[in-house]
Amino acid sequence: MRRLERILLPMATFAVLLMVWQLVASSGLYADYLFPSPHQVINGVLELSLGYTLWSDLGTSLFRFLSGFLTAALIAIPLGLVLGWYNRVWTALDPLVQVLRPISPIAWLPFIGLWFGIGDLPAIVIIFLAAFYPILLSTISAVHNVDPVYLKVAQNFGSSKRDILIKVVIPAAFPHITMGLHVAIGSAWVFLVAGEMMGVRSGLGYLIVDSRNYLRTDLVLVGIVFIGIMGLLIDRVVGAAERYVKKQWGIVN
Amino acid sequence: MSTIKIRVHRVEKNYTNGNGTAQTALIGINLDIMEGEFLCLVGPSGCGKTTLINLIAGFEQPSRGEITIDGQVVKDTNPKFITIFQEYSLFPWRTVQENVEYGLEAKGIPTKEREAIAQKYIQLVGLEKFANCHPPKLSGGMKQRVAIARAMAVDPDVLFMDEPFAALDPITRMKMQEEVVSLWQEKKRTFIFVTHNIDEAISLADRIVIMTPPPGRISTILTVSLKRPRGRTGRDFGLIRDRIYQEFGLKSGTPQAPDVNV
Predict the structure, then answer these.
(1) Is A118 or B25 the better-scoring residue by pLDDT?
(2) Could you report the per-residue pLDDT of A211-229, keeping only the tens digit for each?
(3) Is B48 exposed, middle or buried (0-12, 13-18, 19+ CB in 10 A)?
(4) Looking at this predicted complex, what is its ipTM?
(5) Chain B neighbors of A171, CB-CB under 8 A
(6) Is A252 helix (H, G, I), strand (E, B) or coil?
(7) Of the candidates A150, A157, A163, which has its C-beta nearest B79's C-beta?
C-alpha cells in the first residue's frame, strides 16, 4: 500500500495544482500573456515539438549541463581528496577557498562573457562554477569524516600513508561524496538558465529569454516547466544512485 | 618457563580536555605481561583500561614512563601487535575474504598465498559460507569473528582486544568467549583483553588486572588457576567472583570471602 501511496499522493497534488491553475487562468482575472493557462502551455509544447526546437533545446541544455558538471566533478573530487587528506595543504588554501565560495557564479558573468565569448562555453563555465565548490567542499568533508576506526586498523596493519588514502580513505569517503554530488547537481541545475541567458542561441534558458522578447509568455512557461521536470528527473536518478551506494556500504538512514 | 613479553614501567597518561584542564587518565602503572598469557584488564568505565591498551599497542604515547615489547620501546603501532576494537571495524566495501586479506596485502604477500591464508582463517572462525558477503549483511557476532580472522591472519605476536564483545547479546557473547579461548590455546600467543564484564574476565584470563576509577591505577592483579575448559558456575568460579566484587566494593552473596588466589 505504501508504494502506491508514494506515487498517488504527489500525483494528486499535481492534479489539484493544475486544476487551480486552469481555473484561475480561465476566470478572466488576468490577461493571457500575464497568466498563461495549462492549456496554452500544452499548445506551446506541441508548437515547439512540431518545429523540433523543443527537443533540440532540451538536448543542448543537457549537454552543456553535463559537460560543466562532469568537468567540475572530475576536478573537484580528486582535488578534494588530496586537500582533505594532506592537512597542511588545506590549511594553506582554506581561507582562499572560503573567500571565493560565497561569490555567486552569476557575479562572474561579466568576466565569463568577456573571457569565453558566446556559444556553449560560457554556459558550461557557469555550470562548472556552480558545481565546483559544493563538490570540492563535500569531498573534503567526506575525507575528514571517515570513521577513525578504519584509519586505526589500516595504520595497525602497517599500511603506508599513500595506501591508506587509496585503499581506505577513498572507498570510505565514497558514500559521502555521492551525497555531495546529489546536492551539487540540484543546486547547479538552477544556474542553467542563468548560463543560457546570454551569448547563446539555443537551450531552455535561451527559449525563455527569446520567448519573453516576443511576449510569448506561454512559451516562457514551457521552458520553465521543462526545466522543472528535468531538474526533478535528474534529482531522482542521482538520488537512486546515492541510495544504492549507501545500501552497499551498509549505511542506514 | 615464561619470559616477559611486555613491560609497562611507571606509565602515566595525561590529557588536556576541551576546557583546557588537565586530566590524568593513568598514573603509576607498572605491569609485566608474560609471553603467551591471557591477560584481562577489568574495571568500570573511565578507569583507563582502553587508554592503557592504546598505549601498549602504540596508538598513543605515555606522558611519563616507558613501555617495551620484547625489550623494544613502543613508539608506534606495529603489525606484530594487532588490536581488535569495540566498534565494528570491517571495511564495508570489501567482502569478508577481502577484509581478511587486508593485513596480508599490507605485508606484501602475493595474491595466491594471500587467498589461501585468508581462507584458512575464515574457516577457523567458521564463516566459509560467508566469504564473499559484505559486512553489512553479517550479524554483530559474525563481524567480530571476521575481525578476529583478519587480525590472526597476519600471525601477530600479541592480540589486543578492547571490549570486542560488548555489543553482542549474552549468548553470542559467551560463544565468542569460548572461541577466543580455543584460538588462544591453538596459537599460544599473548592475548590482552579489556572488559568490564567480570564473569567474562574470569572465564578467559590467566590473570586479571583490576583497575580503579580515574585517575586509573592498578588496584590488584589476581591469578586465575581454574582448569580450562572453565564452567561459569561452580564454587571456585564463585569464589573468584566474590573476590573481584570485593575489590570493587560490591556486596556479594557470601560473607566476606577470604583472600583467594585459587
Answers:
(1) B25
(2) 888 888 888 888 888 889 9
(3) buried
(4) 0.89
(5) 91, 93-94
(6) coil
(7) A157
